[in-house]
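Re-run with default settings, no changes from the original entry. Doing this only to confirm the output is reproducible before filing.
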Amino acid sequence: MISIDMVSQSLGVLLQNDSDVPVDNHDLSMMIKGIADILPEKQRLVFILRDIEGMSSEEVELITELNESSVKSNLYHARKKVRNGFY
């Protein structure tokens, strides 16, 4: 498991928009996985399905068997934790 400090530091480098810092898809994938790993299970699942896999809310509801408000709530809290953890 990637530590939250490692992910935060790597994202900080990316957010500087420094063109001299190459980031490949593998590095980015590992950072996203690190972010998702810090979330509670339901939030992680909804976050991955919606924001990483790009599924619709309806698809997420079918897969997770959560109702619309639960999907929205879990996604809101997941996004909030990701933002608050790195900004």
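The radius of gyration is 14 Å. The longest helix spans residues 68-86.
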